[in-house]
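Feature request, filed as a ticket because there's no other form

It would be nice if the structure record came with a short human-readable summary line next to the tokens. Right now we just get the raw output. Example of a typical job, pasted below so the devs can see what we mean:
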Amino acid sequence: MSAKTTASAPSPVPGPGPGPGPAPAEAVTPLIRGITVLRQLTEAGGTMSPSGLERATGLARSTVDRITATLARMGYVRLDGRDAVLTPRVMELGNAYLGALRLPALLSARADRLADELDESVSLAVADGDGIRFIHQATRRRAMSLSFRIGDLLPAERTAPGQLFATEWTPQVWQAWRTRRAEDPRNRAFPTVPPPPGSAGGDEDFEARTARAAVENCAVDDQLIEPGLVAVSVPVRDPRTARITCVASVVSHTSRHTSADLRETLLPRLRVAVAAMEDDLRGAPRPEPGPPPAGLATWTGASKLELGREFIESLARGLTVLSAFDEGRAELTLTEVAKATGLARATARRALITYEHLGLVAPTPHRGTFALTPRVLSLGFPPLSRTSLPRIAAPRLTGLADEIQETTSLAVLTERRDEIQYTARATAHHVMSVDIAVGTRLPARSTSTGRLLLAAPAPHGSPPSSPAYTLADGEPEQGVRMIAVPVHDRDGRVIAALGAATHVARRTAEECVHDILPALLSTAGHIETDLHTAARFTHVPLT
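Raw output as currently delivered:
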């Protein structure tokens, strides 16, 4: 018998919204409100004003302010002027689900290779009630590109994966789907898709396509989402149960392939890739659980003492429950959740009751255990899943520039590794300040920043022993003094340099090392933490 590779699929929760009916008496109201704010921020693309959140959620402005203050304390949002902005750290919630699921870690490399082989976009999706949710995307850079992101939810009837998942629906899910279709025929509850085109077909059409998918073990999307978009999908089955664990799809445009062409030319290669994925699942060893988060209950208590009424302790403690799950901790009992988070059993129990109502947690077939559902990805993941290193670094650069009162910048090596390119910057307020425009390129070997980056091997090499910092005068021009430190990826490789520039008359070299270097190193550490969270299951471009 093969080792267990994925969390057992919990019972589907119908529909894309929160749990049906009124909240249970033991549900944590501040936690429900906090989840509502996170979802609204997600649907708004990651940024929303408090007044916008007040209108969208129906909550009082004072409640919105306390929730955003608590989320800011947790590092899940930052308060930028009048806006609340999601930060990469909120992705740790979605990472907990994806880590527990294990499918992205086990199958994403196969999907990426298939995308390279076919020169088409390839996705992996899981069922979420009567919808589908993406867990991996390998996209192609083209003028006509796909906008779907990891975590996006689509209605099953308008996708090829949905036809395949529907072959395993219970009567309960079919009824929930019919109810949702009657109440929302224009898919307004699915903000990531346009209204149905005329070719989408009715309920009978979806049922017929599902029946055909059951016979052929594949499905085709012929412009169901919007005109021009076509896809072919094949189920990836759990080797232990033969049930569908996820669906792999090749997505294209009618200018490149018709739906018939997809079946004829790409489907055979997709089936080969899926067979290899199933072999990977069959041979995957049982995961070793990493250490659970520690000291969370103590941290929330200390935060409450420091911030007082502005910190909603029940919201913070409730959110820590999601982080108890991860790879090797896919299914947890109430006792295990309490132990992992340091929360009292009663507190952990009320949080689980709340999450079950919201459809974020579900009981598993194994008695007394719970698992995260794909709906956890609705908490901030989609708008951040296509972030870039400059976007991650930008607010950190601004904070650093305000702290040291010098211009700060981020630079990377170009693909040919012969030049450095500045990709982000923040300026200090001086009459005479260093002006290094974003996009500026300089020869790598003639700059200290370039030499720092060249000390690292090319991508996919082994982690280097890079210098801790570089300091040089006359770069990028006479009179400028530059100090820079490396920024590392999840594997410890140097991928960028964080620098501060000043005029030689303003600071000596010794003052740069004494006054600026500690702040540079601290900021680089914060950027690395954000990057490592964002890049765990997504590709983060350097430019």
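Something like this underneath would help us a lot:
Residues 93 and 323 are 6 Å apart (CA to CA).
The longest strand covers residues 244-253.
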